[in-house]
Amino acid sequence: MSKLYSSIIAKYFDKSHKTRPRDVIIGRPDLNTIRYPKNVIRNQKYSIITFIPLCLYEQFSVFLNLYFLIIGLTQVIPMFRVGYFSIYWTPLAFVVFVSMLREGYEDIKRAYRDKEINSQRYTLLTENGRTEEILSSEIEVSDVIIVKKNQRVPADVLILQTLDKSGTCFIRTDQLDGETDWKLRIATPMTQSLEDISILTSDKSQKVKIHSEPPCLNIHEFNGVISWKSDAPLSVENMLWSGTVIATGEVIGCVIYTGTDTRMVMNTNKPRYKFGLVDKEINRLTKLLFVASFVLSMLLVILKGVDGLWYRYFVRFLLIFSYMIPISLRVNLDLGKLAYSWFIQQDKNIPGSVVRTSTIPEELGRIGYILTDKTGTLTQNVMVFKRLKLGAVSYTIENKTKISNLLEEVYKKSGIAANESQESLVTSTSTKRSIGKNTEAMKVTEAIKALALCHNVTPVLNDSAEIMNEFLSTSDTPKTSVTSLNTTTGSDVLELLPVIAISYQASSSDEIAIVDWTEQIGLTLIHRSLKSMTLKLNSTEQLFDYEILQLFPFTPETKRMGIIVRDENTNEIIFYLKGADTVMQNLVQYNDWLQEESANMAREGLRTLVIAKKQLTQEKYQAFEQNITKARLQTINRSRCVREVIETLECDMELLGVTGVEDKLQLDVRQTLESLHNGGIKIWMLTGDKLETATCIAKSSKLIRRNDDIYIIQQVATREECLQELNIFKRKIGACLVITGDALQICLSFYEKDLMESIIESPSVVVCRCSPTQKAIVVDLLKKYRNKKVRVCAIGDGGNDVSMIQSAHVGIGIVGKEGKQASLAADFSINQFSYLTRLLFVHGRDCYKRTASLSQFIIHRGLLFCVIQAIFCSVFYFATTSIFPGYLLVGYITIFTMFPVFSLVLDKDVPAEIALLYPELYKELVKGRSLSFKTFFLWVFISVYQGSAIMYGALMLFDDDFIHIVSITFTALILTELLMVALTIRTWHTLMVVGEFLSFTCYVLSIVIFQSHFDIRFLESWSFIWRVVTITSISCLPLYILKYMQTKCKPPIHEKLTQYSTPK
What we know:
Layout: H1 2-13, E1 22-25, H2 51-60, H3 63-74, H4 85-118, E2 121-125, E3 131-135, E4 144-147, E5 156-162, E6 168-172, H5 174-177, E7 182-186, H6 189-192, H7 199-202, E8 209-212, E9 224-227, E10 231-234, E11 239-240, E12 245-246, E13 251-257, H8 263-266, H9 277-304, H10 310-320, H11 328-346, E14 354-355, E15 367-372, E16 379-390, E17 393-396, H12 400-413, H13 422-435, H14 440-453, E18 458-462, H15 466-474, E19 482-484, H16 490-496, E20 502-505, H17 509-520, E21 523-528, E22 532-537, E23 542-552, E24 560-567, E25 573-579, H18 581-584, H19 594-603, E26 607-616, H20 618-632, H21 638-647, E27 654-665, H22 669-678, E28 682-686, H23 691-700, E29 710-713, H24 719-731, E30 736-740, H25 741-759, E31 764-768, H26 772-785, E32 791-796, H27 802-807, E33 810-814, H28 821-825, E34 828-830, H29 835-875, H30 886-893, H31 898-902, H32 912-917, H33 922-926, H34 933-957, H35 965-984, H36 990-1009, H37 1016-1019, H38 1022-1049, H39 1053-1060
Parallel strand pairs: 15-28, 15-32, 28-31, 29-30, 30-31, 32-33, 33-34
Antiparallel strand pairs: 1-8, 2-3, 2-4, 4-13, 5-11, 5-13, 6-7, 6-12, 8-9, 9-10, 14-34, 16-17, 16-27, 18-19, 18-20, 21-22, 22-23, 23-24, 24-25, 25-26, 26-27
């Protein structure tokens, strides 16, 4: 029996799949020795079993609700019962029910979204070699599946074969890393060469094993080995992560990780319940009120005498004074939050805005830090080529015609024509070098040719035209919905060009923008394979073929990329190199303009690349090839050996020019960031992009302002290096920090507190090469070390931003090119980054100010009654009896005062135009002065004064008519409340007037209806009226006078601006 239990526990609760490397047999899930997680997406907070207990726990973790639960339970005991049973239970049940209803509705919506994803269908390659349709949730580790174009990859999959002969495909990773550029992925050569891939699943004697690393967070690396007839290494280029989308063709792959083991799920945090700062502050105030009611009850018991059943009197006093903590506070605040959410969604100035978490709208008024994504949030990720700088000459996009003419002129002078032979081409090229080497046209031509060749761009054809289908049916290229031009020849492509438009794909938008610009001016990339490239001169339709001999990709360490090509027409071998100006200036021949011009373009917000070339002889290249091959065979320090060999070529390069590319910003981003800065908000940018790009965008968007110093921490490895960098940064007071994700992680491991305390006061921080998990970690650290009075807001638009958004106090998602995943997971959804100013400065201000006024006024309403009750008890020999009947108490906290008090949700202290015109007003909100202990004790003083004025005034003026004390005090109490609402309102609304009139009318009608409880003749007398007016005047008039004097002598800054400013 024990063995059976052990096997069940091992099968269902074993977590070894999280920590151990795994061996997967392709197409044989029956051979899995470990129970791997199901391939389901689950974003729900609750299940059917956990919904009620978890919701109740969350509701009663709020002190206010817990207090009234205890108070309600005491009413079950007859000796403690005071008033009606429903007075205590109905409001509590209503509050809890509405909150649970809202939580359940939001969780049901999440469940429907999960079901939609889990129900997507995929093609499975079965053991008998056939295919069948299965749901995404049914996919298991080692299954062989087919993923078609535009389908989401359902799990982490190893590419076995693509329909492209070269084994390549493009994917979109925007939901994983936030980058919208397509990325190239390659099938394993061992399986790509198979004519029939089904042999791996149908022939059980063919066991192909994949040894892979344990599940981890890193989306940029993968280590594995595929073993069949031999062993071959696997890397991240062979993997498709869950959540990515196939952009071209179809892919056959083997599932390696499922469900919670996938990279995407591991980089996503579970949604959590968010409790606002204002709610926490109100919670503290209610605890203080509880202490006050406890002390007051104990004091009255002591004065009455601690003997006999003193505890009974203590509990009854406690119940009587329970109105000091009104349950209506929770009801009104929740209804107010719904009203604020509705106002946001109905604002025509920010159309399409959605409030998905209606419990924290007032948090928008307390934001101190904004952590933003870059791609799709600050920028459109649309690159536009702006400038080509050749020494003293600058060419912009307006000079395209001139550049095209210069390009055509060079080829005409060189005698290049479509009908010339190979021999004349060689002659003309030598003539070109001797005659026109230093002319402007030659410089332009050489620079453009370098731009058209030195890149990693692949041209792609779409099959929207019938000619494409005809071409695919007659060629040996597999039919795919999109064909990469690495399987065709140059002449084949030329035949297609009149009817098929070429689009470009690459991992870098900069390269696409540059190659697209070379096409516009007359030199088009029409073909690219792993070993060759073809350019076309548009004016003559002539093709130029190049053999790719070597390719050196861009890396963050080298900050440059290079390519060695052989011109098929002239047999020349040319080494082209492009990279960051800081690196390239040491590799090119001496010049006096590169550094200055690069700095000028960077100040304009352009991303700069320096282009250079070097002519290689056949002998020199052969020697280089031997050395690079030998270096690549090294097993120890391979990267360093390869880098050293490449550096032998990277010297004395001929400088060709500098390019400037603009990453188009989102609409009004600069103005928005400037307003946020002026509002006292510190802005951090967390991006997966490289350091140079992130820094450039930070400058161009004005995230880092022109006069700000910048300190960069790029590479650290040891504790000593971390300490050195940290000490240098500390000495740069007021400097902005730019740091890589790896460097940040290392620094945090050694000096977390010192680093966070240093950078938390920085005007702006940029973290580049940042993974989704690191974004969430940064948010959590900022929440830990920040000023506790401010809140942290995260904003993004991609799936890689979900963890950050859910970790922040306030998560805002932008609906954009990267899909709706961030928008659906966020607390607030907007359509543009520029909407942020109105969301914070207008709605954030109104929500916070209104919540502060509403909560304090409701507390004042309860305190006012308790003061009257305390005086009544002390005068009448400490009787544990309520001064007012139960129905009057219920009416007091509901229909008699509810409408005018709740109408405070319509109040505003500053017009929207003034709030937007003067962002500095937002700084006042962050200090939290509208709801503080100072304002709380001010309202306590007002309540004590007014309660004393009403009760003692009634006792003094109605000494002979003591029997009418209830009518007198209650009427004065209602009038005082209505007048205090009017005193509190700063901007009148029609509904506020209606609420005041309606409440008073309800009170008058209640007198008519309940005549048995009132002396109508006495209430109609002038004696009653003038005395009530006198008492009400004594309680309210001094406060009106004090407010008037304060407004005239020391008005708040927002009132000055409202009075004297004219919005433009």
